[in-house]
Design a protein that fits this description.
By secondary structure, the protein is of the alpha/beta class. It is about 45% helix and about 10% strand. Strands 2-3-4-5-6-7-8-9 form an eight-stranded parallel beta sheet, sandwiched between helices. The chain has a two-stranded antiparallel sheet with strand order 1-10. The longest helix has 21 residues, at about 40-60. The N and C termini lie close together (about 5 Å).
């Protein structure tokens, strides 16, 4: 039977396949997800059986169990059973909420530099996504009472999609600060989330929080011609954006063509304009090539010269330059004995090894961590170990690609508990991912780049509605949706 792309939430609703950790790769439609592997199907079966038994023992519904801490622990235990001992989790956590809570303390500061506010058509009927959609409207009503800036904004059903983003990112996970990202397009009319929409969402969240809790990207596409420089000026002036986001492999312009960061006629004018405008974080989608485009245009090799010649700019390589699961998985069959390269993460690391002065190049983990940790934890450990060893623990940045992958909650828990498998750690000389290293990656590194004070973000101001709402939400009993909003391959 032919394979087709379907929404993950639609598949879970049709099959009752909800899970605290996705058991198949989810895509934001930028890259083709692999079909569910045999190992992932085994994990799914173990999670279903544990949920059936433990929900009955605890006297709750199966979905309520899956949404709980013990449900998340059950998924991690299932992955350990299938893939080996890669997560620090104990059996008691799968049926004792207090045990899970004791071994899962909140991290003090989480800065997610890749999130997406998915627009209504991409998210589907809100009733299919949240257990109680009316409760989301209640969030707005409370907001209008607690935050005077929102009292004149009447609750609307359309707000449910924005509030779903707020709930998934800030209430159902420990995320403290996030960056809202987007993708360039030929025109704003064809853009699912153009810069002005990202700025609107940022304004709403920051009014709710009465502080800087959400940042927003501006979009660059120098292959569209010199008019893009004026677009950059307008974005910087009107939207007060926090960083730039570009896709070198995305053909735009007339005629449509990709571009290189180190192209003196195309990339350099954009970098010079970024410098003049004072927005110095340059975030570039590298790896995960779009279908139907030239793969070579997504390779991070064009960064070395540009980073050397613009040392005052920060080049943040999104997805850590990871080419694809299909290209990387064959090397895992013998635990990287015959093939140790990971396209194109190894190339990024070698670029830094050849020129230690490239201290303005950083790797971001969005989607790369998520897809590798649920498909091949050995590969995930190899990538993390390689990046920390060659770029430095202070040059790896946390990103989740939420809410395409659902709430960042499961990725945070998986990362906190992840251990680089001993065979590859010993073979390649990877140091353990200590608590200090994980704290750097989860937030402290990005805070330096974006000028965010972690202490100020962790300790909310008196009229921070987001923190008040989260406290009330947790007190009343959280209800994670277990929803991933992206695409999967189904039959």
């Amino acid at each position: 039977m032919a394979k087709r792309w379907i929404r993950k939430w639609a598949h879970d609703r049709a099959t009752d396949g909800w899970s605290p950790i996705p058991t198949r790769v989810v895509s934001n439609e930028e890259y083709a997800p692999l079909p569910q592997t045999r190992e992932q199907a085994h994990v799914a079966a173990l999670v279903r059986e544990t949920a059936r038994q433990n929900a009955r023992a605890l006297g709750v519904s199966r979905r309520a169990f899956l949404a709980s801490g013990p449900g998340l622990a059950a998924a991690l235990l299932a992955m350990n059973q299938v893939f080996g001992d890669v997560f620090d989790v104990e059996a008691v956590e799968a049926y004792e909420p207090a045990a899970f809570q004791e071994r899962s303390p909140r991290a003090p500061f989480i800065f997610d530099i890749q999130t997406h506010h998915v627009a209504a058509p991409a998210m589907g009927p809100i009733s299919a996504l949240q257990p109680n959609p009316l409760a989301l409207l209640e969030l707005r009503r409370r907001a209008s009472r607690w935050n005077p800036a929102l009292r004149n904004r009447r609750p609307r059903v359309e707000d449910l999609y924005l509030e779903t983003f707020i709930k998934e990112v800030f209430l159902d996970s420990d995320t403290t600060v996030a960056v809202l990202s987007g993708i360039p397009s030929a025109t704003d009319a064809t853009n699912i989330l153009p810069p002005y929409r990202m700025a609107e969402t940022r304004a709403i969240v920051n009014k709710l929080a009465a502080s800087r809790r959400l940042l927003a990207h501006g979009l660059v596409a120098p292959n569209k011609g010199s008019s893009d420089l004026e677009t950059m000026r307008r974005q910087a002036s009107e939207l007060k954006l926090d960083a730039w986001k570009g896709y070198t492999g995305l053909p735009l312009g007339d005629p449509p063509a990709a571009w290189r960061v180190d192209d003196e006629k195309v990339g350099y004018p954009m970098l010079e304009e970024a410098r003049r405008l004072g927005v110095r974080n340059i975030c570039l989608h590298k790896g995960l090539p779009f279908a139907g485009t030239n793969e070579a245009d997504w390779h991070p090799g064009d960064l070395a010269r540009a980073a050397r010649e613009f040392p005052d700019l920060n080049f943040i390589v999104y997805h850590a330059g990871f080419r694809s699961l299909a290209a990387a998985l064959p090397a895992t069959r013998d635990e990287f004995v015959r093939i140790s390269r990971v396209d194109w993460v190894t190339d990024l690391c070698e670029m830094r090894a050849k020129d230690p002065k490239l201290t303005n190049v950083y790797a971001e983990l969005g989607s790369t961590f998520a897809m590798t940790v649920i498909t091949a934890p050995l590969l995930c450990g190899h990538i993390l170990g390689m990046l920390v060893k060659h770029l430095g623990a202070d040059h790896v940045l946390w990103g989740t690609d939420a809410i395409w992958w659902g709430s960042p909650r499961w990725q945070l828990e998986a990362f906190r508990r992840f251990r680089i498998p001993r065979p590859i750690a010993d073979r390649f000389g990877y140091a353990p991912l200590t608590g200090d290293v994980k704290r750097q990656i989860l937030g402290l590194n990005a805070a330096k780049l974006y000028g965010v004070d972690p202490a100020a973000a962790v300790h909310p101001v008196p009229n921070d509605f987001v923190s008040k709402l989260k406290a009330a939400y947790l007190d009343e009993g959280p209800s994670p949706s277990l929803t991933q909003y992206g695409w999967i391959i189904g039959s």
